[in-house]
Design brief:
This protein has about 150 residues and is mainly α. It has a 3-stranded antiparallel beta sheet with strand order 2-1-3, with helices on one face.
């Protein structure tokens, strides 16, 4: 504003009303300052992140999970104590799952092996690779011939 006052005093030499020029120039400076402040505020608001209720719920879940996981060393029973407790309660745990092996009556057919298929309705026979016969067999129109 001091600089503006200095420049307005020179307007006297131009035979203009210094008060009027001071008002116009100060108003222009005020508008530019308001624009600058608005841009800064809007920029700040766009960069900021408002909390939503969903994020608050998620944070609460995370803190509950963390609280559940915190245990003291004294609270964890020893391995020997656990096995004794299980035996006393009659709990027996299986060590491994039994895996069944597949027993085939016939050898596995490879994708590129030639096979003979027969059409169910017409009785027509074709010799094609298994990879081409497989979709026809799954549709039910053709049957694999030994």
């Amino acid at each position: 504003m001091d600089e503006l006052k200095q420049s307005v005093q020179l307007a006297v030499h131009e035979q203009k009303d210094p008060l009027l020029i001071y008002k116009f120039e100060s108003f222009e400076l005020f508008k530019s300052m308001i624009d600058h402040v608005n841009k800064n505020v809007i920029s700040f608001l766009f960069k900021g992140e408002l909390p939503t209720q969903e994020s608050n719920i998620q944070e609460a879940r995370d803190t509950r999970r963390k609280e559940d996981l915190k245990t003291q060393k004294d609270e964890i029973p020893n391995l020997d104590e656990r096995s004794a407790q299980n035996r006393a309660a009659g709990n027996t745990q299986r060590q491994r799952e039994v895996v069944e092996t597949i027993v085939r009556d016939k050898p596995k057919i490879g994708r590129n092996d030639k096979v003979t298929i027969k059409h169910v309705m017409s009785g027509e026979n074709k010799t094609v690779k298994y990879k081409q016969a497989e979709p026809l067999i799954t549709k039910g129109e053709w049957v694999l011939v030994d």
